[in-house]
């Protein structure tokens, strides 16, 4: 058992695994839910690369589900939330007061979680011989059969047309709503799958924090499947061992022949049609395990500076490294239980983006290479208006992305260049 500081919870936390060195860098990503069209190109990019074989028919390391009703496996989040609530009734709450004191060692960007995590509620009231290290459950076979069940099914009142709630002009909550939730393994800083494995078959790679299952050591006990609150560890009946997203590590480490030695984004990220995904590597502070300050890393900027992207169910306690820009039309109470108390500030930042945020958002999907640093060259003002009664302007700035060796890998402007096809090729590419 180790006592660790979980910065997403704003407090120390018990983690039922021996203390190890933190990885040098951490695989992380930001998904902008507002832009996803549910096309599942990401899902197929992963499946056609990693899970197309016998025994993997129902295995989707990447899936995009329709919230609030959908889920893969079905009801994964509702079931885990209920287990937590049953173990700590009425006390799974946040104190959303954000304090700045001691902000480097003990950051509290979303306040403090007063409830208990999947680690802190495990094994309560059970026979010690059969105690779980992590609170969880094993989904049934039926629950794994449909990766996007209830596709496009909205929540609303039957027979009543949609009426936006008069909350604000730019981000009205809708009474009839759904949204797509894109999901892969979060390569958590405190992985529940790893903590639960009795064979020590799961490990975090020291170079990039990618969480892998050693296929030789695994005996298929499925403790990881039971423990992962995101249900991103899966059992394969033909090999009788568990498998999970491998973070496309050959691409991330630059050993894939396509990458020409440069770290590349994963298959599911690179294939994204809606340009909603950005993935990269952040430096890890070796004393605290938190992200080390790196102001010009686009992921660091989005999560730690602009605070526009939030962790999925931070209250589970695994400190996931996947972050989401929440959808602006969805009732806030739903979003807050899913992404924590940072929702309102994140939406505020997103609907009236600063000049810098607008530029960083422009870097999504402009290159397959991993961007380690960005710079902005200021341009002319091209548009001005008011948002929520406040003035807001767009400048045609240029944003430049740099690779691992500090070399320029991409350059783009806020105003995207327009190309007109010549008439004689109007219907061809
Ligand atoms: S999301 Fe689940 S499978 Fe992935 S690292 Fe976290 S606990 Fe493990
Ligand atoms: S990172 Fe790679 S292995 Fe993981 S879900 Fe995406 S495509 Fe699949
Ligand atoms: S490819 Fe991108 S836009 Fe399409 S479903 Fe996946 S995340 Fe959404």
Describe the protein in words.
The chain has 429 residues and is an alpha+beta fold. The chain has one domain (2-351): Alpha-Beta Plaits (2-Layer Sandwich), CATH 3.30.70. The chain is 17% helix and 21% strand. The protein has 10 helices and 19 strands. The strands form 8 sheets. Strands 12-3-14-13 form a 4-stranded mixed β-sheet. The protein has a 3-stranded antiparallel β-sheet with strand order 15-18-19, covered by helices on one side. A hairpin with a 6-residue loop joins strand 8 and strand 9 (211-213). The chain is globular. The chain starts with a strand and ends in a 16-residue tail after the last strand. The mean pLDDT is 93. The structure holds iron/sulfur cluster (3 copies).
Attribute tags:
single chain, 429 residues, alpha+beta, Alpha-Beta Plaits, 4-stranded mixed β-sheet, 3-stranded antiparallel β-sheet, 17% helix, globular, binds iron/sulfur cluster
Q: Can I get a quick summary?
A:
The protein is 17% helix and 21% strand. By secondary structure, the chain is an alpha+beta fold. The strands form eight sheets. The chain has a four-stranded mixed sheet. Strands 15-18-19 form a three-stranded antiparallel sheet, with helices on one face. Strands 1-2 form a two-stranded antiparallel ribbon.
């Amino acid at each position: 058992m180790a006592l660790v500081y979980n910065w997403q919870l704003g407090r120390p936390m018990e983690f039922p695994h021996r203390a190890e060195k933190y990885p040098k860098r951490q695989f992380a990503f930001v998904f902008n839910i507002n832009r996803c069209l549910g096309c599942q190109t990401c899902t197929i990019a992963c499946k056609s690369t990693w899970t197309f074989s016998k025994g993997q028919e129902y295995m989707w390391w990447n899936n995009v589900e329709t919230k609030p009703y959908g889920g893969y496996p079905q009801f994964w989040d509702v079931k885990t939330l209920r287990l937590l609530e049953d173990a700590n009734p009425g006390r799974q709450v946040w104190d959303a007061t954000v304090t700045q004191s001691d902000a480097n060692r003990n950051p509290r960007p979303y306040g403090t979680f007063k409830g208990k995590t999947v680690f802190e509620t495990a094994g309560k009231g059970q026979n010690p011989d059969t105690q779980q290290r992590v609170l969880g459950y094993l989904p049934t076979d039926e629950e794994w059969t449909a990766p996007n069940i209830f596709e496009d099914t909205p929540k609303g009142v039957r027979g009543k047309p949609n009426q936006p709630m008069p909350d604000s002009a730019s981000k009205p909550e809708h009474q009839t709503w759904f949204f797509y939730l894109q999901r892969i393994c979060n390569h958590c800083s405190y992985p529940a799958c790893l903590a639960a494995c009795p064979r020590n078959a799961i490990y975090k790679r020291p170079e990039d924090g990618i969480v892998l299952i050693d296929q030789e050591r695994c005996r298929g006990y499925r403790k990881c499947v039971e423990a992962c609150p995101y249900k991103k560890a899966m059992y394969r009946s033909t090999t009788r061992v568990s498998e999970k997203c491998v973070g496309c590590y050959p691409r991330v480490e630059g050993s894939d022949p396509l990458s020409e030695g440069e770290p590349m984004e994963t298959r599911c990220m690179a294939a994204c049609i809606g340009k909603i995904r950005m993935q990269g590597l952040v430096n890890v502070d070796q004393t605290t395990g938190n992200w080390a300050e790196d102001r010009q890393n686009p992921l660091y900027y989005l999560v730690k500076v602009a605070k526009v992207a939030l962790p999925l169910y931070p209250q589970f306690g695994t400190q996931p490294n996947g972050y989401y820009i929440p959808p602006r039309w969805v009732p806030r109470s739903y979003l807050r239980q899913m992404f924590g108390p940072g929702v309102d500030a994140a939406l505020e930042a997103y609907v009236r983006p600063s000049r810098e945020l607008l530029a960083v958002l422009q870097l999504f999907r402009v290159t397959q290479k991993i961007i380690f640093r960005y710079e902005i060259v200021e341009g002319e003002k091209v548009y001005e208006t008011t948002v929520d009664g406040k003035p807001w302007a767009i400048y045609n700035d240029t944003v430049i992305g740099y690779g691992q060796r500090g070399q320029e890998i991409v350059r783009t402007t806020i105003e995207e260049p327009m190309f007109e096809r010549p008439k004689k090729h109007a219907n061809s590419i």
